Amino acid sequence: MKEESKYLKDNISDVKTSIINNTENRNGNDKIRYIITILSFIQIFLSSGIILGWPSLANMIKSEHIFKFPRENPTIPSLAEEVYLAELMNSSLSWQMFSTIFLGFLIDYFGPKFICICQLITTIGTTLILIPERDGVIINFSYIGIILQNLCGCIYIPTFIHMSNLFPSNKAMIISTLSTLYGFSSCVFLIIQFLYDYFSIKFNYLIGTLALLQGLFIVFSFMLPSETFEEGDDCGFSLSKGGFYKIKKNIIINNEINDSFISKLKLLIINTKILINHIFSRLFLFQFMLGVFTLISVNFYLSTISLQIEELSHLPEGELRHNQGYFWSTILTFIAPFGSLIGVYQGYLIDKYGLTLSSFVPCILLISCSLFKLIPYVPIQILTFVTYTTSQEAIFGTIYSLIAFNIPSNIICRFSSINLLLQSYPAGYFPNLLISLFFENKLTFFQINLLLVFPTFIITTLFVIYLYYKEENKIIPNQIDEERVDLV
């Protein structure tokens, strides 16, 4: 950061520092700020974290018998089919996180407008689910569709996180809302399953409607600004300028400097050094450990919730046992989004009390989840599911706030991409490893869940201690440095 400041002071001699007076147009800009933010919220809801609604989608896939696994009873999925779908979810998430390394760098290079390509991929994926597996057809379009539909999900939050700079006094709350909507998007498939089960609307019609709604946001994405918003910036809208555009509030940079190849090259080198320093920092290590372990725990639980409830029901194999798992997994998927609303409240707590104090509650909830899973009583799993969803959204709200408070806006997508890329392998491999312990090694879910209790306690405790250390040493800033000038 010091190198960047020195370079800017030495080289920007002809910067025009005229103050932009926005008071006359403030009401108009306020409306535009709210419009772009609300539309971004809706886009994340429809497109980002759909994988969290996997239990509902999996139930419909099994009902439609999209993957042609042999069944003894046509109405009851085989165990092999259940395990295949659980592994497909974890593989899809792993691909989602792996893709962020490319998408993050592209979004940082081309600006937020590049998210229109991600939205296109998501829409194509949703559409491909409509093509069922057929005998003699080598390509499994539904499998590819599920992968593509979730491929870009993780990149939506870091792409839109810069919009929190439009609301400086409520920055953490906006960030936490973005993170929460990733979880709340499980409602999408929950609503679809409700219409499918109770109104007998065809699966193809419902998925086709979702694809159409997602397609509409390709247009919105194309109208996003080509630059990220910095602290204190405002937003305008003009069709002649291609849609939404950034209004610099305090500083106007001379175009000659902005367009200089040497200046851009030097800033690229400086920003790369800053990025590397952040990657090899304690901040990265501790947020990575908590984030990846939360993903492993939650994804294993989500992908096997139906099987776990079937085991806890103590019913013999058969239709009644399957119906029990189907019923409770649907109920839990319905409850989950409302539990995730606590993520928005977490943002309020961060703005008011700081990261350390606000992180106690989600970390305690995560530890509680690991213990609740051990209680062999089906209704307790409702509490476990809600607690998991609540703690997950609050934890990721805390993590993204930590990142946004410490990482410059112009490299935040690259930082998040590398972070998610490194998380992709363990987040995909370990849930499938735990599933194999059940399917191949014949361990019970109780035994598997017991293995996760101790690391949950250790990792959450280390994270809270780290935040306390940073705040005690005043390393976490309360706001982004207003003196920093960004030329990229």
Automatic annotation (TrEMBL):
The answer on whether this UniProt entry bears the keyword DNA repair reads: no
Q: Where found?
A: Membrane
Q: Protein name, please? A: Major facilitator superfamily protein
Give the family per the record: Belongs to the SLC43A transporter (TC 2.A.1.44) family.
Q: Where are the transmembrane segments?
A: 34-54, 88-107, 137-161, 173-196, 202-224, 283-305, 325-345, 357-375, 395-413, 445-469
The keyword Transmembrane appears for this protein: yes
GO BP terms, alphabetized: amino acid transport
Q: Provide the topology term for how it sits in the membrane.
A: Multi-pass membrane protein
Q: Which GO terms describe its cellular component?
A: membrane
| Organism, scientific name | Cryptosporidium andersoni
Q: What is the lineage of its organism?
A: Eukaryota, Sar, Alveolata, Apicomplexa, Conoidasida
Q: Which UniProt keywords apply?
A: Amino-acid transport, Membrane, Transmembrane, Transmembrane helix, Transport
Q: Which residues form a coiled coil?
A: none
